[in-house]
Amino acid sequence: MSTHLNTFSSGPDENGHFGNFGGRFVAETLMPLILDVEKAYLEARDDPAFEDEFEYYKQHYIGRPSPLFLAARLTAHFGGAKLYFKRDELNHTGAHKINNVMGQALLARRMGKTKIIAETGAGQHGVATATACALFGMECEVYMGAEDVRRQKPNVDRMRLLGATVVPVTSGSGTLKDAMNEALRTWVAKAETHFYIIGTVAGPHPYPAMVRDFQSVIGEELRWQLEAFEGAGRLPDTLIACIGGGSNAMGLFHPFLDDEEVEIIGVEAAGHGVDTDQHAASLAGGRPGILHGNRTYLLQNDDGQITEAHSISAGLDYPGIGPEHAWLRDSGRVRYESATDTEALEAFALCSRLEGIIPALEPSHALAYTGKIIADLPADHIVVMNLCGRGDKDLEAVLPLLDEMGLLEV
Amino acid sequence: MSYTSARLQKLFDNLQQSERGGLGIFVTAGDPDRQTSLAILKGLPAAGADMIELGMPFSDPMADGPSIQAASLRALNNGASLASTLEILTAFRADDQVTPVVLMGYYNPIYSYGVDAFLSAAIDAGADGLIIVDLPPEEDNELCIPALDRGLPFVRLATPTTNDQRLPAVLKNTSGFVYYVSITGITGTAAVPRDLAAAAVKRLKKHTDLPVAVGFGIKTAEDVAAITSVADAAIVGSAVVEQIRDSLDPSGQATNATVENVLSFVATLATGTQRSAPAG
Asked: Percentage helix, strand, coil, to 5, in chain B?
């Protein structure tokens, strides 16, 4: 069932397996739909017209390429390796999410679908989807946990302004995993007319591979951008990105998986600590299981019931992780670490003060872990971190906490 | 390949001889609590259930509507687990060796329990088949083939979206019976019109000799009568589970009315299963 892959970048196999992970664990009602999506995606991927269209919107609408920026003051602050930021927070809508959404929206349009469903946690993927739907004149329904609707009101308002219908989900615990359950339920019922834009490298095949491919522009740009700074042929020594579902990380990592000399680190959200029951670190604190159409590492109890994730970052607050990450971890190609809520808050403040960049809470986790290792690395070592979102959305939640921690004083 | 349990075989043979359609009743194991759930289960055959689909509670039932989701959560909140589901089945089998019981649920609790250990335990407990919603034929190596190797039927769902190209693959390793999901959607929605159900069953019968049971959206004795006039059995789930819900006290616990309400509702549904009036 699982096929041996010759390279780290050539997966998944034709059944969507990354080693033992991934697959298509969905109800029969959904199977014909995901087979349709796969067929359409494979055709689009090989069609230069699709690539041209995608490229047009990446350049003129999203604002790609996103800059590569030498974070000189943080580099000096840490006193070790050179730190670059891949600045995907400068994309239209303020995060990497739009890269994938644009790809899937174009695919939906190509398939003749005019109605879009999406799930969202913090609301970033929902906003990106509502944006693309406004641009292409498509109907948009965003499923969002009732608890998240309450916590993320500014994003709910943005989606409504963009013309999307936000559907609060009260089933289960009313968070991201329940929103995804509900979006899948809706898709089952409305399959003829609707396309489901999944926001991360999860879900049934082909979604993990497709979302990764649409996000890989991040790593592909980095290859040539770094050469402009550091000379021809120079590769980064270390790549670091935060992981919730893991789409920004897969986008950064994938083009470098077969460059063995590049060290790759994913940073999970440790919440109150991975040794507590309040975290979102599926790799550090979970075990393999099946949810939302794929096999991956999941937070679950002894009976195989999915448990709640916790992170201060709503974007990392998911009890699973993309199946390709599960495989990259087990194969040893990528190292997975974690950062706590508190560490992320400190990094959030530090980046704001030293670089004039207010990062989202999600990449603040990546920066927090970067801070733990970078001082011990030599000055000619190059670390590239994906600054995958901007932090304006987080201010309301973060400011009182920073105040308490004394990090707002000048 | 033909695998079936003796109990399922006997049930469908009897139904055919008596020219009657069967009534399958879905309840979630441990809903609202273990004791009440077992009492309901034990009363179902006498109330008119020909077959029982016993739901294995799962935290994230992505093919189920609000009623069955809530049933799962009630059971889990009262301590249900895959192990307790199998214990309930074992206790049921102590008194009833006739009524087929098919375990229905999602793969993760089984995967977590261990496929081989689960199959042994399910067979020991007296299960007559498995319906695992999130295991399509593409993932047959996971549980379907190991179950068939142990002689436990794997009942597949066929749906309106299962087209003729796909149907042979769906039916290939199906055994016991075929569960036709009559609507494109989740459990607990509206009933499918009888002519559509008839056409669907006819299409399935062209591809298989197995009995066809129809479920999703069947709520009343009239629905049961309509479906059993064209299919081998009708399965009612959400409407039964709603009887449990409606009988609970404000804190969500069972009351004196819970078992009785469910069983009298099932007795009403069973009046719809007479396919033709008895001779004479």
From this structure: 50, 15, 40
Quick one: fold of A17-58+98-211? Rossmann fold (3.40.50)
Q: Band of the pLDDT at A1, cuts 50, 70, 90?
A: very low
Residue A5: the pLDDT is: 55
pLDDT per residue over A114-137, tens digit each?
A: 999 999 988 999 999 999 999 999
Domain boundaries, chain A: 17-58+98-211, 64-94+216-404
The answer to the question of residue B34 being in a domain is yes
B91-126: b or e for each residue (b if 16 or more CB lie within 10 Å)? ebeeebeebbbbbbbbbbbbbbbeeeebbebbeebb
- Which domain covers residue B110, as residue numbers? 6-272
pLDDT level of residue B191 (50, 70, 90 thresholds): confident
User: Does pLDDT of B280 surpass 50?
Assistant: no
Chain A nearest-CA residue for B57: A305
Q: Do B184 and A29 lie within an 8 Å CB cutoff? A: yes
B64 counts as catalytic: yes
Residue B42, min C-alpha distance to chain A (Å): 25
Distance from CA of A307 to the nearest CA of B (A): 8
CB contact under 8 A, B69 and A15: no
Of B59, B113, B161, the CB nearest to A29: B161
What does the pLDDT read at residue B1? 40
Determine the Cα–Cα distance for residues B29 and B15; give it in Å rounded to an integer: 26
Q: Once rounded to an integer, what is the mean pLDDT over residues A153-162?
A: 95
For the segment A213-254, what is each residue's pLDDT rounded down to a tens digit? Answer: 999 999 999 999 999 999 999 999 999 999 999 999 999 999
The answer to whether the CB of B71 falls within 8 A of the CB of B59 is no
Angle at A401 between CA A399 and CA A407, to 5 degrees: 80
Q: What residue ranges in A121-273 does DSSP mark as E strands?
A: 139-145, 165-169, 194-197, 238-243, 263-271
Q: Do the domain assignments include residue B250?
A: yes
CATH number of the CATH domain containing B48: 3.20.20.70
| Contact indicator for A198, A211 with CB cutoff of 8 Å | yes
Name the residue facing B109 among A172, A288, A305 (closest C-beta): A305
Would you say A99 and A251 are in contact if contact means Cβ atoms under 8 Å apart? yes
B53 is annotated as an active-site residue: yes
Mutate to test the interface with A, among B62, B78, B85 (most CBs of A within 10 A): B62
Give A228 to chain B, closest Cα distance, Å.
Answer: 46
From chain A, the residues in CB contact with B160 under 8 A are 29
CB contact under 8 A, B136 and A189: no
Question: Which are the contacts of A138, defined by CB distance < 8 A and separation ≥ 6?
Answer: A105, A108, A109, A113, A114, A115, A116, A132
The pLDDT value given to residue A7:
84
CATH 1.10.510.10 fits A64-94+216-404, yes or no: no
Within 8 A by CB and 6+ apart from B106, the residues are A290, B56, B58, B60, B61, B62, B132, B133, B134
